[in-house]
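Problem: given the chain below (386 residues), write out its structure.
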Amino acid sequence: MPSSTTWSSQPFRTLYTVGFWSINIPHLLYLSLRNSIAPIRTVPQWGYQLSMGVAILRALFRYLAVIRYQQPRQMVPGKAQDRFVLIAPPDATLFRGVLGAPAAATKPEPVGAVWYPAVPIPAPPPPGNNGATAGDPPPPPPRRRVIIYAAGGAFVTGWDPDENAQNIAALATDHFDDAARVLCMQYRLASRAHPFPAAVQDLFTAYQYVLGLGVAPRDVVLMGDSAGANLVLAVLRYLAVEGLRQPGGAVVFSPWVEVTAEAVQKYSRSVASRYDMLDVPLLEWGVDAYRPQGRTLTQEEEGYISPLHHPFPLKETRLYVDAGSLDGVYESISVFAKQMMDVAGNRVRFHTTENMPHDYFLTYPLLGTKEEACAALRDARDFLSA
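Solution.
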């Protein structure tokens, strides 16, 4: 397939766009009529909004995969204003092993991120001693969880970070922690210039930044969906392997745990590939862009990129894994969760949300799956707080 640069510099992108949507808009209209009749819906268990939301996303993902469009990262405040932060990488000595090996194709770079509803920095005490005696330490700030969120998109597509932060915070404050702050970080989208471990470096940078604000590791929750969930698992593995401070919890929705060309081919032959939002061209693009090219990967690297069959000890972190029962990659997620549970000392919960497709969490506003997303968050909260 041509690169995004090629498409943008030639008239073929416009021609393809016209042709693609001239075919797919009538198809979506047909699906709209079909899905309005419950007995003949594509997936009988789904309502109209869920059916059409998945169909729209599926078409959009195929279009983006063919033209290879990647949303530019936000590196300036924009509409987020003072909620935007540009995070410098931490000390270079923290990047070691697979994140700092000489063979790594990428080096750490600044990371753009958006807070919601505000940066969790305690306000300075008011003037005067307020009844305190000289030398008394100031009272500790109230505890509140910080959620660092990495959105999905097969490693190659981007989302509006401000909108994501608002959507996730809207759920988290009502159903996870009413004092939570959400940091929606923007990792480098995968390309030949930024394959693994670029995105893992970026999430690790965001985590170190939050710790640098004085937030205790036990109050940090790493959260992600699909490819973003894969990055969460990679950072957890890195922290455990390198003996670094680990977060109190991690919540992953629909994690992409088998990032290989063989797995994509297997999915292409499955029944789910005909109804779920995971479109084969998007997955092929993600695998090709994220996996480093031109050399044989080590088993250690494979564990970070494709964690299925590569379980690891969590030590200090509780891990909550959720997947929809109609997720096209449900089987691989359930196997991975079982493998993680079997590691001595790990505290892992696997939760199945019935009749949900892939990544119903991030896309809940379009799919109408807020109730299911909230229920999963409440279950995750109870598990992480036990």
